[in-house]
Amino acid sequence: MRYLGNRNxxxxxxxxxxxxGAAAVIxxxxxxxxxxxxxxxxxxxxxxxxxxxxxxxxxxxxxxMAPTDLPxxxxxxxxxxxxxxxxxxxxVADLADxxxxxxxxxxxxxxxxxxxVRVGDTVEVTLRNHEDSWMQxxxxxxxxxxxxxxxxxxxxDPGTEKGFTFKALNxxxxxxxxAVPMAAQHIANGMYGLILxxxxxxxxxxxxxxxxxxxxxxxxxxxxxKGELTESYDKLLxxxxxxxxxxxxANALSGDNALHAKVGETVRIYFGVGGPNKTSSFHVIGExxxxxxxxxxxxxxxxxDVQTITVPPGGAAAVDFKVEVPGTYMLVDHALSRGARGxxxxxxxxxxxxxxxxxxxQEMGEMNGETH
Length: 372
Description:
By secondary structure, this protein is mainly β. It is built from 3 helices and 20 strands. It has helices spanning 10-27, 183-188, 233-237; strands at 81-96, 99-106, 115-118, 122-129, 140-141, 161-167, 172-177, 192-198, 208-217, 227-229, 243-246, 259-262, 266-275, 280-284, 289-293, 303-306, 309-311, 315-322, 327-333, 345-350. Strands 11-9-13-18-15-16 form a 6-stranded mixed sheet. Residues 1-47 have low confidence and may be disordered.
């Protein structure tokens, strides 16, 4: 399939999609695509292997991955074979108030599903490119030891599926992403996620775990424009995004999608940067990270008492902290101008006031992404 440089090629894309769909009827050898969000039915080689991520039986209503949508720890079990099934789906969804965008996704949301395995697991990966896709897609797991992180084995035309098996050799928190050329375009359009390979014995337990990823979108239209926005290949190459996002959309992790905890509870945020281009200076305004697993190394001693962590594109980190004062805490990139372009989240902490730790001398205003 010819690489489509930008969305001005829609007519060609539609024609290629029809041809790919016809080819898929001939080439498909496993379960057909019955609709968005359906999953590979396993087959003999994987029938007893559990899925390593949450399953959406139908297309999710929103592009935004809920920060609470991650599986529980697997540290208490021995090594086993697990299945990871990714559907690559291109869909139009809300980017900002009054604006939509045609995202390219894993399983219909941004980021893709949080995959959770343990060191020593054998992981069977199936990637299915939906028949309505305009593009080829694949998946490159940074947790994989092997050619292209699995990307070479999973280049799939619309309506086809590919797969590979790998051994989870190294514990850590790793990015996965589409790597079909131009990889930066596929990533910018939403094709990234995290895989956690838990170490022997797992991580110290916490009360709440959250899944947050940062990305950028490059639109022809200026920030704040209405209607269906179109991607800008030139802005992508020049690294000039119009939108910065947590979990896929502007201001996505606020309001109904805010993170929640109670005074006295412990919180862990698994944080990654899909990018494709910008490094994050991740910070929670009003909190200090008790433990920061730098560069997502989970077997190195964590840094302690950290204000801000630096996470590069294609990188990740995990941070732990205890919430001791009620209020609304803002998740930001401390390159704070990005907050004005959609990069704001909220952690809402409820409970009794704690004047020994914090008390205001007068009535306080409300926090927002530009308050620091």
